[in-house]
Design goal:
InterPro entries: Cyt_c_biogenesis_CcmB (IPR003544), Cyt_c_CcmB_bac (IPR026031). It is a multi-pass membrane protein. It is found in: Cell inner membrane. The protein has one domain (2-221). It is built from nine helices and no strands. It has helices at 2-18, 22-41, 45-68, 73-77, 80-84, 91-120, 127-152, 159-187, 192-221.
């Protein structure tokens, strides 16, 4: 089972780089948003510094959503799931591994960029470490919650729109907790409460995600 799990992760990571641009598309979208929004607000460095944390979290959420739209769709259309079901891995674990592959291939890259972009926008250097940790937790939550939306929208004609409607409300808490954590660090307050909420949400998504995705995939494949 362990060998099959690693094989699936390697396969999905490889396909994400060769089919549809995967990480490159999300990174490009992220950088485009980060360039356009400050341009629309003007060159006032004080304003950019105040909104840097919240802005990067918003862009992280939207870029993560973009990369998850076709998480299961291609394998569903190509009947790959029918083959995977014959193997040793249950659907819940298959779905979890596909989300982790997406996170490793896209979410981690976006997370590494987040503190750098914050500092470029004028946020203090003190935000870098906590910004990186919180971005890792947030992007993992986005991947798992987005996976639930992708599995529920599987087979729908307008799956991308349906997925966005299903997922975006559940992206709000990590954005609030993450931006609040950055604000706490910036003002000298304790960030532990916001970090605890962000970690708890990631664990909640990790616990709920595989079960919900497995049930949705089973329904779509039946």
């Amino acid at each position: 089972m362990i060998r099959a799990s690693f094989a699936l992760i390697r396969r999905d990571l490889g396909l994400s780089l060769t089919r549809g641009g995967g990480p490159l598309l999300s990174v490009g979208f992220y950088l485009t948003l980060m360039a356009m929004i400050p341009l629309s607000l003007g060159p006032d460095q004080a304003v950019l510094s105040r909104i840097a944390a919240g802005l990067t979290w918003l862009c992280l959420a939207l870029s993560s959503l973009l990369s998850l739209e076709r998480l299961f769709e291609r394998d569903y259309e190509d009947a790959v799931f029918d083959t995977l079901r014959l193997g040793p891995l249950p659907l819940e674990l298959i779905a979890l591994l596909k989300c982790l592959s997406q996170w490793l291939g896209t979410g981690v890259i976006l997370s590494l960029m987040t503190p750098v972009v914050m500092i470029i926008l004028g946020a203090p250097m003190s935000l870098a470490l906590m910004g990186l940790v919180s971005a890792f937790l947030g992007s993992l939550s986005f991947a798992l919650i987005g996976g639930i939306g992708a599995s529920l929208a599987l087979g729908s004609r307008k799956g991308g729109v349906l997925m966005a409607l299903l997922v975006l409300p559940f992206y709000v808490p990590p954005v609030i907790f993450g931006a609040g954590l950055m604000q706490a660090v910036q003002t000298g307050a304790s960030p532990l409460q916001a970090l605890a909420f962000l970690s708890a949400y990631a664990l909640f998504a990790l616990a709920l995600g595989p079960v919900a995705m497995g049930a949705a995939l089973r329904s779509a494949l039946s």
